[in-house]
Amino acid sequence: MAAASGGGPRTNRVRVGPIDLAARVDEALAVQALAFGLGAEEIEVRRHIVLRHLDHPHARALGALTPDGRLVGFVYGMPNERGHWWATVVEPYLRATGSAHWLDDSFVITELHVHPDFQNRGIGRTLITTVTDAVPQPRSILSAIDTDSPARGLYHSLGYQDLARQVIFPSAPKPYAVMGAPLPLRRR
Length: 188
Ligand SMILES: CC(C)(COP(=O)(O)OP(=O)(O)OC[C@H]1O[C@@H](n2cnc3c(N)ncnc32)[C@H](O)[C@@H]1OP(=O)(O)O)[C@@H](O)C(=O)NCCC(=O)NCCS
Prior knowledge:
Helix content is 34%, strand content 26%. By secondary structure, the protein is of the alpha+beta class. Strand 4, helix 5 (123-133) and strand 5 (139-145) form a beta-alpha-beta unit. The protein has a seven-stranded mixed sheet with strand order 1-2-3-4-5-7-6. Helix 2 (25-37) packs across helix 3. Its EC number is 2.3.1.-. Keywords: Acyltransferase, Transferase. GO terms for molecular function: acyltransferase activity.
Protein backbone atom coordinates (compact mmCIF):
# COMPACT_ATOMS: atom_id res chain seq x y z
CA MET A 1 0.00 0.00 0.00
CA ALA A 2 1.47 3.32 -1.04
CA ALA A 3 0.66 5.06 2.23
CA ALA A 4 3.10 3.09 4.31
CA SER A 5 5.59 1.82 1.77
CA GLY A 6 6.07 4.73 -0.61
CA GLY A 7 7.10 7.45 1.78
CA GLY A 8 3.80 9.35 1.81
CA PRO A 9 3.14 12.05 4.36
CA ARG A 10 0.84 9.85 6.50
CA THR A 11 3.71 7.55 7.39
CA ASN A 12 6.71 9.88 7.50
CA ARG A 13 8.51 7.56 5.09
CA VAL A 14 8.13 4.41 7.15
CA ARG A 15 8.77 1.42 4.92
CA VAL A 16 7.29 -2.04 5.31
CA GLY A 17 9.31 -5.07 4.27
CA PRO A 18 10.71 -8.44 5.30
CA ILE A 19 12.99 -8.44 8.34
CA ASP A 20 14.94 -11.01 10.32
CA LEU A 21 12.61 -10.77 13.29
CA ALA A 22 14.52 -13.35 15.34
CA ALA A 23 17.61 -11.12 15.13
CA ARG A 24 15.52 -8.08 16.12
CA VAL A 25 13.33 -9.77 18.72
CA ASP A 26 14.29 -7.36 21.51
CA GLU A 27 13.41 -4.32 19.39
CA ALA A 28 10.13 -5.94 18.39
CA LEU A 29 9.22 -6.75 21.98
CA ALA A 30 10.03 -3.19 22.99
CA VAL A 31 7.46 -2.02 20.42
CA GLN A 32 4.97 -4.62 21.64
CA ALA A 33 5.55 -3.60 25.26
CA LEU A 34 4.61 0.00 24.44
CA ALA A 35 1.74 -0.83 22.07
CA PHE A 36 0.16 -3.66 24.02
CA GLY A 37 1.48 -3.09 27.53
CA LEU A 38 3.88 -5.86 28.51
CA GLY A 39 5.81 -6.01 31.77
CA ALA A 40 9.46 -7.09 32.02
CA GLU A 41 8.55 -10.64 33.03
CA GLU A 42 6.07 -11.02 30.18
CA ILE A 43 8.68 -9.75 27.71
CA GLU A 44 11.07 -12.51 28.77
CA VAL A 45 8.36 -15.16 28.38
CA ARG A 46 7.29 -13.73 24.99
CA ARG A 47 10.92 -13.68 23.83
CA HIS A 48 11.17 -17.49 24.02
CA ILE A 49 7.76 -17.95 22.43
CA VAL A 50 8.51 -15.60 19.51
CA LEU A 51 11.86 -17.27 18.81
CA ARG A 52 10.22 -20.69 18.85
CA HIS A 53 7.47 -19.51 16.49
CA LEU A 54 10.00 -18.03 14.07
CA ASP A 55 11.67 -21.45 13.82
CA HIS A 56 8.61 -22.62 11.92
CA PRO A 57 9.71 -23.15 8.29
CA HIS A 58 6.73 -21.19 6.93
CA ALA A 59 6.69 -18.38 9.49
CA ARG A 60 6.64 -14.93 7.84
CA ALA A 61 7.60 -11.64 9.43
CA LEU A 62 7.51 -8.05 8.21
CA GLY A 63 8.78 -4.92 9.87
CA ALA A 64 7.98 -1.24 9.56
CA LEU A 65 11.22 0.73 9.50
CA THR A 66 11.96 4.45 9.66
CA PRO A 67 14.51 5.83 7.17
CA ASP A 68 17.21 5.49 9.84
CA GLY A 69 16.35 1.83 10.35
CA ARG A 70 14.38 2.01 13.57
CA LEU A 71 11.75 -0.73 13.95
CA VAL A 72 8.37 0.89 14.69
CA GLY A 73 6.01 -1.98 13.88
CA PHE A 74 5.96 -5.65 13.00
CA VAL A 75 3.72 -8.53 12.09
CA TYR A 76 4.36 -12.23 12.01
CA GLY A 77 2.37 -15.36 11.49
CA MET A 78 2.41 -18.88 10.14
CA PRO A 79 0.10 -21.51 8.65
CA ASN A 80 -2.20 -22.88 11.32
CA GLU A 81 -1.62 -26.37 12.63
CA ARG A 82 -4.31 -27.97 14.73
CA GLY A 83 -1.66 -29.34 17.09
CA HIS A 84 -0.31 -25.89 17.98
CA TRP A 85 -1.15 -24.64 21.47
CA TRP A 86 -3.18 -21.68 20.15
CA ALA A 87 -5.31 -23.93 17.93
CA THR A 88 -5.96 -26.44 20.71
CA VAL A 89 -7.28 -23.62 22.92
CA VAL A 90 -9.59 -22.06 20.30
CA GLU A 91 -10.80 -25.30 18.67
CA PRO A 92 -13.62 -26.11 21.14
CA TYR A 93 -14.93 -22.53 20.87
CA LEU A 94 -14.89 -22.69 17.07
CA ARG A 95 -16.54 -26.10 17.12
CA ALA A 96 -19.32 -24.65 19.27
CA THR A 97 -20.03 -21.96 16.66
CA GLY A 98 -19.71 -24.33 13.68
CA SER A 99 -16.53 -22.64 12.45
CA ALA A 100 -13.81 -25.18 13.25
CA HIS A 101 -13.07 -25.57 9.51
CA TRP A 102 -11.38 -22.15 9.73
CA LEU A 103 -8.50 -23.94 11.45
CA ASP A 104 -7.61 -25.70 8.20
CA ASP A 105 -5.77 -24.01 5.30
CA SER A 106 -5.52 -20.86 7.34
CA PHE A 107 -2.70 -18.38 7.97
CA VAL A 108 -2.57 -17.28 11.61
CA ILE A 109 -1.61 -13.70 12.42
CA THR A 110 0.29 -14.29 15.64
CA GLU A 111 1.33 -10.72 16.49
CA LEU A 112 0.74 -7.27 14.99
CA HIS A 113 1.96 -4.18 16.81
CA VAL A 114 2.74 -0.59 15.89
CA HIS A 115 4.60 1.83 18.16
CA PRO A 116 2.07 4.29 19.65
CA ASP A 117 3.89 7.28 18.12
CA PHE A 118 3.37 5.74 14.66
CA GLN A 119 -0.20 4.45 14.95
CA ASN A 120 -3.09 5.57 12.74
CA ARG A 121 -0.97 6.18 9.66
CA GLY A 122 -1.86 3.01 7.79
CA ILE A 123 1.18 1.05 8.98
CA GLY A 124 -0.77 -1.73 10.75
CA ARG A 125 -3.05 -2.10 7.72
CA THR A 126 -0.05 -2.30 5.37
CA LEU A 127 1.75 -4.85 7.56
CA ILE A 128 -1.18 -7.27 7.75
CA THR A 129 -2.28 -6.95 4.11
CA THR A 130 1.29 -7.31 2.82
CA VAL A 131 2.06 -10.39 4.90
CA THR A 132 -1.21 -12.13 4.00
CA ASP A 133 -0.96 -11.21 0.29
CA ALA A 134 2.16 -13.38 0.09
CA VAL A 135 0.75 -16.59 1.59
CA PRO A 136 -0.83 -19.49 -0.31
CA GLN A 137 -3.64 -20.09 2.21
CA PRO A 138 -7.15 -18.91 1.20
CA ARG A 139 -7.94 -17.45 4.61
CA SER A 140 -6.53 -16.00 7.79
CA ILE A 141 -7.43 -16.29 11.45
CA LEU A 142 -6.32 -14.49 14.59
CA SER A 143 -7.33 -13.71 18.13
CA ALA A 144 -7.73 -10.25 19.62
CA ILE A 145 -8.83 -9.04 23.03
CA ASP A 146 -12.62 -9.11 22.91
CA THR A 147 -13.25 -5.40 23.15
CA ASP A 148 -13.95 -2.45 20.84
CA SER A 149 -10.27 -1.68 20.23
CA PRO A 150 -8.53 -0.07 17.25
CA ALA A 151 -7.18 -3.55 16.50
CA ARG A 152 -10.70 -5.00 16.27
CA GLY A 153 -11.80 -2.02 14.17
CA LEU A 154 -8.92 -2.59 11.79
CA TYR A 155 -9.58 -6.33 11.54
CA HIS A 156 -13.30 -5.81 10.86
CA SER A 157 -12.50 -3.28 8.14
CA LEU A 158 -10.18 -5.85 6.50
CA GLY A 159 -13.00 -8.42 6.37
CA TYR A 160 -12.30 -10.39 9.53
CA GLN A 161 -15.50 -11.64 11.16
CA ASP A 162 -16.03 -12.95 14.65
CA LEU A 163 -15.85 -16.74 14.71
CA ALA A 164 -16.04 -17.04 18.51
CA ARG A 165 -16.27 -14.54 21.38
CA GLN A 166 -15.19 -14.64 25.01
CA VAL A 167 -12.43 -17.18 24.38
CA ILE A 168 -10.37 -17.80 27.51
CA PHE A 169 -6.65 -18.49 27.11
CA PRO A 170 -5.05 -19.97 30.21
CA SER A 171 -2.85 -17.25 31.77
CA ALA A 172 -4.50 -14.38 29.81
CA PRO A 173 -6.39 -11.98 32.07
CA LYS A 174 -8.96 -10.93 29.44
CA PRO A 175 -11.20 -12.91 27.07
CA TYR A 176 -10.40 -12.90 23.35
CA ALA A 177 -12.39 -12.96 20.14
CA VAL A 178 -11.28 -15.32 17.38
CA MET A 179 -11.67 -13.73 13.95
CA GLY A 180 -11.35 -15.05 10.41
CA ALA A 181 -11.18 -13.44 6.96
CA PRO A 182 -10.94 -14.69 3.40
CA LEU A 183 -7.71 -13.81 1.59
CA PRO A 184 -6.80 -11.51 0.01
CA LEU A 185 -7.94 -9.12 2.73
CA ARG A 186 -10.56 -6.52 1.81
CA ARG A 187 -9.27 -3.21 0.41
CA ARG A 188 -10.93 0.10 1.11
C1 LIG B 1 -3.81 -2.52 16.05
C2 LIG B 1 -2.63 -1.71 15.55
C3 LIG B 1 -1.50 -2.65 15.14
C4 LIG B 1 -3.07 -0.93 14.30
O1 LIG B 1 -1.94 -0.27 13.78
P1 LIG B 1 -2.06 1.16 13.11
O2 LIG B 1 -0.83 1.37 12.30
O3 LIG B 1 -2.42 2.19 14.10
O4 LIG B 1 -3.33 0.92 12.16
P2 LIG B 1 -3.65 1.65 10.79
O5 LIG B 1 -3.30 3.09 10.90
O6 LIG B 1 -3.11 0.86 9.66
O7 LIG B 1 -5.20 1.46 10.74
C5 LIG B 1 -5.97 2.08 11.65
C6 LIG B 1 -7.29 1.41 11.53
O8 LIG B 1 -7.60 0.93 12.81
C7 LIG B 1 -8.91 1.23 13.07
N1 LIG B 1 -8.91 2.15 14.18
C8 LIG B 1 -7.95 3.02 14.56
N2 LIG B 1 -8.32 3.66 15.66
C9 LIG B 1 -9.53 3.16 15.98
C10 LIG B 1 -10.43 3.39 17.03
N3 LIG B 1 -10.18 4.26 18.00
N4 LIG B 1 -11.58 2.67 17.06
C11 LIG B 1 -11.87 1.78 16.09
N5 LIG B 1 -11.03 1.51 15.07
C12 LIG B 1 -9.89 2.21 15.03
C13 LIG B 1 -9.53 1.80 11.88
O9 LIG B 1 -10.12 0.73 11.16
C14 LIG B 1 -8.38 2.37 11.14
O10 LIG B 1 -8.63 2.29 9.80
P3 LIG B 1 -8.70 3.62 8.92
O11 LIG B 1 -7.38 3.66 8.25
O12 LIG B 1 -9.83 3.35 8.01
O13 LIG B 1 -8.92 4.80 9.83
C15 LIG B 1 -2.15 -0.68 16.59
O14 LIG B 1 -3.26 0.09 16.99
C16 LIG B 1 -1.54 -1.33 17.81
O15 LIG B 1 -0.36 -1.67 17.81
N6 LIG B 1 -2.33 -1.48 18.87
C17 LIG B 1 -1.86 -2.01 20.13
C18 LIG B 1 -1.45 -3.44 20.03
C19 LIG B 1 -2.55 -4.35 19.56
O16 LIG B 1 -3.68 -4.26 20.03
N7 LIG B 1 -2.18 -5.24 18.64
C20 LIG B 1 -3.10 -6.19 18.11
C21 LIG B 1 -3.11 -7.37 19.00
S1 LIG B 1 -4.39 -8.48 18.46
